TrEMBL record:
Belongs to the Toll-like receptor family. The keyword Repeat applies. This is Toll-like receptor 13. One of its GO terms (biological process) is inflammatory response. Residues 938-960 are annotated as: Disordered. It is found in: Membrane.
Length: 960
């Protein structure tokens, strides 16, 4: 026992391992757009008749009920249902399933009902139903099952109903395996198998709570009960057909079946003695007995059965009874219900039911009676069923003294006319059905009688005219059906007296006009059906007497014209008075338009059916007065757009059906305006498969509120190269902006830029500074290029620490002795002007720039900016405008940040004061010559030195 219980637990744990993940992933990401199914309710899927060959994969995990009947599924594998842990009901009937892998249902621990009827299963293997620990109903009817493995039902501990009918089981031992593993089984149906022997000792080791056992059509040869194996059994069916050997019946103690109150031994083959022996077994407990298909000894069996004191229901259908005589049922004094239907009864003697004082229900339907039997008058029945006979005349005394009758069914006979006296004694009758006869005249049959009648069905007769006050005697009538007659015009006062009528059906007549005068008596009317009549209006102009002005309690109105009628228009005030109307159906009414104010009178309208009319357009404000609308059905009316819904403000609309219209694009604002929409049916429209529908396609696949019915079968109509292709298969990635991708690119660019700026600042700081000042020089040069005037011969760029040499050596020589005009920052810069602007003006306002270079000069920020601007002027003008004077030898590493200066020194004029000790006059002469030279192109200027290269690199022979 411990081993048997371990496996289900192990299977359940394997399933539980992924349930949290599935619930968080599938439940939140799966929309209502199912490829092979439609959602009938929030957690119910209907996948019928879709010709599916495999179990669908797109059903969300939240679903509790799935109907997959009428498909071609041939196999269930252990992966098919792993994502559906919440299932309560699964219907797989009428498929081709021949194999169910072990572990298929291991995750269905909540499943309660499993239907596998009409498949191709042949063997119920071990492990097939593992995991179904809460299953209560299992249906396996009409398969090919001939073997039930001993442990196949070990998980089904809570099973209460098992249906194994119409299979190929031969041995009772299969029941042993089932009953041992399902101790709470109450209903077991194994009818139409091949079990020929029933021996109780084969089930003696089982403990069962079985209440109902069906062994019908098994052609039992032996039925032996020698132990009390079914202490709770109340219903036993042993029905059989055909001529075979007599059944051997052995019940050693009648107390073993003393609880059986319902028995069906119809058609069982045995001798009269054998059948009586069977009946004797249940003599003390039987209340319901079915004796169908007995052509011999029926009278004896009936007399024997009626002696049973507790027998109250006797079913004698399909026994080929032709007539009923007074002695046939004389002993059935305790019967409460007698069913004689589906025989060939044409005659019943007057006293046939005289002794049945307890009889309450008498059924004689589907026989050959031509009139109401006189015998029924001597009963005290409350229900009489005479439908599907050949009764053509109802006489005044047919129901004489039947004051207790509550339900009378005379439908599907051949009655032509009624008489005013026919129902005179039925003062307590509540339901009368007369549909499907040939009645063409009522003859005041309902003017004075049946004050308690509540339901009257006269549909599908030949009534063409009704008299005034025809139903005035039916003060309690609540439901009246006159459907399918030939009524053309209803007179004023026809329905007078029907103050309690709630349901009136006048469908499929020839009524041309419905007026206020006709309907004013219906104070309590809830439903009025006027479908398929000839009611038409020419104009939308208001009418003087709106037909429904007095029907303030009406809840449902159905009205339409018959096929072939001319175009119809409803008056503006057609619905005036219907303040409580909830459902309005005017489909198939040949309407060409609707007045914008027609719904002003129906503020409580909940469902509106306008399908299959001839509208060319709908007014924008048509639905504005009906803000409570929850269902709108406007299929087949040639709509070219749904934009009219934008102004309707239908925030409570839950269901919208717009099949077979002419629009091809669904716009985003329309769908977003329907905030409560749960069901959308767009079948039969011609969709455009381009970016115009990109939003709609994405919405269908991802929205979690609205079910778009049959969305995966929508087809493209445009462009021509995509015609016929499935709409949801179109690739719309090129139509949509991927926000995630854009965010990714933006973030990546920001990161790269941050890294680049950091790298540049750390490694290329001086290059950036240099480029900045080059740009300033460029801007200045561009600004003053055409209006440049040289105010000075040279601008002297030096560090303050070298000011002594400049003022003591350079200035006296150049200005006092040689007569040059120099620009010095401490003397000639304009006070209050930005320093950089002073520097730029001085450099471009002088013919040349003399840079006095020293170690202090290289470390000075402002000196660096001066030489950078001067260098840009040099490269920009391509003239010899820069003179470099080195006051001291500078090592290479100190020039490295100024690699542009190093390159410049290899090509440009320079003088070295530290190497002019022996020939100072030559130094000043060279400097004078440099200042004196005109603006020659670079490379053509006067060389002041012999070798290139910065000081400290050149050989001694390069000294001045």
């Amino acid at each position: 026992m411990k081993t048997e219980m371990a496996m289900p637990k192990r299977g359940i744990s394997l399933c539980s391992f992924g349930i949290l993940y599935l619930n968080s992933l599938i439940f939140t990401t799966t929309s209502y757009a199912l490829k092979d199914c439609r959602v009938t309710r929030e957690t119910e899927a209907n996948c019928q008749t879709n010709s599916l060959k495999v179990f669908p994969k797109d059903i969300p995990a939240r679903f509790t009920s799935i109907d997959l009947s009428h498909n071609n599924i041939s196999k269930l594998n252990n992966r098919d249902l792993k994502n559906l842990p919440n299932l309560l009901r699964l219907d797989l009937k009428r498929n081709s399933i021949s194999k169910i892998e072990s572990g298929t249902f291991v995750c269905q621990i909540s499943l309660e009902v499993l239907n596998l009827n009409r498949n191709w299963l042949s063997v119920l293997k071990e492990g097939m139903f593992d995991g179904l620990v809460h299953l209560t109903e299992l249906h396996l009817t009409d398969n090919h099952i001939y073997v039930v493995a001993p442990a196949s039902f070990k998980s089904l501990r809570k099973l209460t109903l098992l249906n194994l009918g119409h299979n190929k089981l031969r041995k009772l031992c299969h029941l042993t395996n089932i009953l041992q593993n399902s101790p709470h089984l109450q209903t077991l149906n194994i009818n139409s198998n091949k079990i020929s022997k029933f021996h109780s000792w084969e089930l003696s080791n089982t403990s069962t709570e079985l209440v109902s056992l069906d062994l019908s059509l098994n052609h039992l040869k032996f039925f032996r009960v020698t132990a009390d194996i079914f202490p709770n059994l109340t219903s036993l069916k042993l029905k059989d057909k055909g001529k075979r050997k007599n059944i051997v019946w052995e019940v050693s103690d009648t107390s073993y079946l003393s609880g059986v109150s319902k028995l069906d031994i119809s058609g069982i083959h045995s001798s009269l003695h054998g059948i009586l022996e069977i009946l004797e077994t249940f003599n003390s407990s039987l209340m319901y007995l079915k004796l169908n298909h007995f052509n011999k000894n029926l009278r004896v069996l009936v007399n024997f059965s009626c002696k049973m004191q507790l027998l109250t229901y006797l079913n004698l259908r399909n026994n080929c009874i032709i007539c009923i005589r007074s002695d046939m049922l004389s002993l059935c004094t305790n019967l409460n219900k007698l069913d004689l239907g589906e025989n060939k009864i044409s005659d019943i003697s007057e006293n046939s039911f005289q002794s049945l004082w307890q009889l309450n229900i008498l059924i004689i339907k589907s026989n050959r009676l031509t009139s109401v039997p006189h015998a029924v008058r001597k009963t005290r029945i409350s229900e009489l069923v005479l439908s599907f006979n050949n009764i053509n005349v109802l006489g005044c005394d047919d129901f004489a003294n039947m004051t207790r009758l509550r339900n009378l069914q005379l439908n599907d006979n051949r009655v032509l006319v009624l008489k005013d006296c026919v129902f005179k004694n039925l003062v307590n009758l509540k339901t009368l059905t007369l549909q499907n006869n040939n009645i063409y005249k009522l003859n005041s049959a309902f003017k004075e009688n049946m004050p308690n009648l509540q339901v009257l069905d006269l549909s599908n007769n030949q009534l063409a005219d009704l008299d005034v006050g025809e139903f005035k005697g039916l003060h309690s009538l609540e439901k009246l059906s006159l459907q399918g007659n030939k009524l053309k015009k209803i007179k004023k006062g026809t329905f007078s007296g029907l103050s309690k009528l709630k349901y009136l059906t006048l469908q499929s007549n020839k009524i041309t006009e419905i007026s206020n005068a006709i309907l004013k008596d219906f104070e309590a009317l809830k439903t009025l059906n006027l479908m398929s009549n000839h009611i038409t209006y020419v104009s939308e102009n208001p009418i003087d007497y709106p037909p429904f002005a007095e029907l303030s309690q009406l809840d449902t109105l159905l009205i339409s014209a018959q096929k072939g009628n001319h175009k119809n228009n409803l008056p503006q005030n057609f619905l005036q008075g219907l303040t409580n109307l909830s459902v309005l159906n005017i489909k198939n009414d040949k309407l060409t338009s609707l007045h914008p104010h027609i719904f002003n009178y129906t503020p409580n309208l909940n469902k509106l059916y306008l399908s299959s009319n001839d509208f060319t357009d709908l007014p924008d404000n048509l639905f504005s007065p009906i803000q409570k609308l929850k269902g709108l059905y406007i299929s087949g009316i040639n709509l070219r757009s749904l934009d009219f819904l934008l102004l309707a403000n239908l925030t409570k609309l839950k269901s919208l059906q717009v099949r077979k219209n002419a629009f091809s694009v669904i716009r985003e604002p329309v769908m977003l305006s329907l905030s409560a929409l749960e069901y959308l049916d767009l079948q039969g429209n011609s969709f455009t498969c381009n970016c115009d529908n990109a939003w709609f396609l994405q919405w269908v696949k991802t929205n979690k509120q609205t079910q778009v019915f049959d969305a995966y079968n929508f087809e493209c109509n445009y462009p021509p190269n995509l015609k016929g292709k499935k709409l949801l298969e179109i690739d719309i990635r090129s139509c949509t902006v991927d926000i995630g991708f854009i965010c990714y690119i933006s973030t990546a660019c920001a990161v790269i830029m941050t890294i680049a700026v950091s790298f540049t600042h750390h490694f290329l700081q001086w290059h950036l500074v240099y480029a900045y000042y080059l740009m300033l020089a460029f801007l200045y040069n561009s600004k003053h290029k055409n209006k440049r005037a040289h105010q000075y011969d040279a601008f002297v760029s030096y560090n303050a620490n070298d000011e002594g040499w400049v003022l003591g050596e350079l200035l006296p020589k150049l200005e006092d002795e040689q007569g040059w005009t120099l620009c010095l920052h401490h003397r000639d810069f304009q006070p209050g002007k930005p320093i950089m602007e002073n520097i730029t003006d001085a450099i471009y306002g002088s013919r040349k720039t003399i840079c006095v270079v020293s170690r202090d000069y290289l470390q000075s920020e402002w000196c660096s900016r001066e030489i950078q601007v001067a260098s840009f002027r040099l490269f920009d003008e391509q003239n010899d405008v820069l003179i470099l004077v080195f006051l001291e030898d500078i090592p290479m590493q100190q020039l490295s940040p100024y690699y542009r200066m190093r390159r410049l020194l290899k090509r440009q004029t320079y003088l070295s004061w530290s190497r002019a000790d022996a020939h100072p006059d030559l130094f000043w002469e060279k400097l004078r010559q440099a200042l004196d030279t005109q603006e020659h192109p670079m490379g053509e200027h006067l060389r002041l030195t012999v070798e290139d290269g910065p000081p400290g690199e050149r050989p001694d022979k390069s000294k001045v």
